[in-house]
Design goal:
This protein has about 325 residues and is mainly beta. Helix content is about 10%, strand content about 35%. This is AraC-like ligand binding protein domain protein/Cupin domain protein.
Length: about 325
């Protein structure tokens, strides 16, 4: 394998984990697949495969689900954004998932506010895939489940220990003698969580693909950042580039950079080696590496570019 291929995780080579989270046996959520592409990820299962384990300041992952499969209500300590690669998805939020919702289609991006429970469901007619960026290197240290999710999981044999490890009682697993079950969130902590409406969330947290295509006609559209369309400082910034806004010149970045094509095929050169990126592929470019990227064929071409920043990956993007 050439060196450049070590930078790339191909969509067709993604290895799913079907036991990544506490709701893996819960009806309605038991067919979902979780992918950890770059970084340690957020899985609660030792079965999770990590494609590129480098710590780059943020994590890249994905969720794949058949129609009507949903991901249960949860929260993270740090930023979580999604863009839709394939299909049509409903995102919902709040203590019971009924505070607000938004439907996203291919290429749309959602910077989910912190401090609220969120879930998502594939409402399309075929297998769907959403790509995720999570703030910080230790994204696995801050997943909180709504109490009803933990109760439902226990009814179907899965118990989450306070050590963050899943135990499957259907397989004969038992919690070690010195590990207690993960406690349910207290009423006091639940009361601190925001319940924003769709009108609260939509203007400042969602960007639509065709709007970004128009905005990136002459220059990259800065989607998430301090002065971006969606203003936030989650420890990384997100740009959207299309055919006419990308420079073919060889250049470097001071930060670790990830390229994630949405449409079209892209010729990528890193340190003089060349390859082609396709939709669903993920490419890591380390800080200081000389590279260039250009569309390799005519037609629609777009990609998301994520770069680490010096901002702390903390409680950003909240709605109160």
């Amino acid at each position: 394998m050439s060196n450049i291929e070590n930078h790339i995780v191909r969509y067709g080579d993604l290895k799913p984990c079907k036991t990544a989270f506490i709701d893996a046996h819960t009806p309605g959520s038991d067919q979902k697949e979780n992918f950890t592409i770059i970084g340690g990820g957020v899985s609660e299962s030792p079965d999770q495969h990590v494609h590129i384990a480098d710590q780059i300041g943020f994590n890249i992952g994905a969720a794949g689900q058949p129609p009507r499969c949903r991901n249960s209500l949860h929260d993270h300590n740090t930023a979580e954004i999604f863009f839709v690669l394939k299909g049509k998805w409903r995102f919902f939020w709040g203590r019971w998932g009924d505070a607000g919702e938004v439907t996203l289609e291919e290429g749309d991006i959602f910077n989910i506010p912190t401090g609220i429970f969120r879930g998502f469901e594939n409402i399309g007619t075929d297998y769907g895939m959403i790509m995720a960026v999570l703030g910080g290197d230790d994204a696995g240290g801050g997943v909180h489940w709504a109490p009803q999710v933990i109760k439902d999981a226990a009814d179907h044999g899965l118990v989450l220990g306070e050590n963050g490890v899943l135990y499957d009682t259907k397989k004969g697993d038992v919690l070690p003698h010195n590990v207690n079950p993960m406690p349910l969130m207290s009423d006091e902590d639940l009361d601190k969580r925001a319940e924003p409406t769709t009108a609260d969330v939509l203007p400042n947290h969602v960007a639509r693909y065709w709007d970004l295509m128009a905005l990136s006609d002459n220059q990259p559209a800065t989607v998430i950042g301090a002065d971006a369309i969606l203003r936030d400082r989650p420890g990384f910034e997100v740009d959207f580039l299309s055919r006419n806004s990308i420079s073919p010149d060889v250049h470097t970045h001071d930060q670790n950079t990830v390229l994630m094509p949405v449409r079209g095929h892209w010729k990528i050169s890193i340190q003089g080696e060349e390859s082609v990126l396709n939709p669903g592929d993920t490419c890591l470019i380390k800080a200081g590496e000389a590279h260039s990227v250009t569309p390799s064929m005519t037609g629609e071409a777009s990609l998301y570019r994520i770069r680490a920043t010096d901002d702390p990956a903390g409680l950003t993007g909240s709605v109160h």
